[in-house]
Amino acid sequence: MIKNVQIISKHSQVKELGNALKFDMLKELICGPATCQQLALVFGVSKQKIHYNLNKLLEEELIELAECDPGNGKEVYYRATAKNYVLDFALGEHLSDGMINSEGIINTFSR
Predict the structure, then answer these.
(1) Is 63 exposed, middle or buried (0-12, 13-18, 19+ CB in 10 A)?
(2) How wide is the angle at C-alpha 49 spanned by C-alphas 108 and 62, nearest 5°?
(3) Which CATH number fits the domain 3-109, given the four candidates 1.10.274.10, 1.10.10.10, 2.20.140.10, 1.10.540.10?
(4) What totals of helices (H) and strands (E) does the chain contain, helices first?
């Protein structure tokens, strides 16, 4: 079941979404499930390139496998794991007393 909101809290997730194609693919999959072939047609790139990028998004748990196509059973559908994604600006920059390390957050984004 698709969640309403997912917090992006890992640097690796932010890194993957820094890629324009992956970001656009995720936006497309928020709208509804799609196959690798369908995404290749939408974005005008090879099916192999789409498949590679889908695997990266799967690894970061930003998308998931949807129900398989009941028609032929061969096509795999992918969908977003949430309708909305929110960036956790702290990204692990918490101090031991539960406070957020603001300087660490600023330094992370200025690299």
Answers:
(1) buried
(2) 45
(3) 1.10.10.10
(4) 5, 5
Contacts of 90 (CB under 8 A, 6+ apart): 9, 100, 105
pTM: 0.76
Residue 74 has pLDDT above 80, yes or no: no
As a whole number of angstroms, the distance between CA 32 and CA 77 comes to 10
| Domain spans in the chain, listed from the N-terminal domain onward | 3-109
Q: What is the pLDDT of residue 34?
A: 96
What average pLDDT is seen over the chain?
84
Residue 80 confidence (pLDDT) above 90: yes
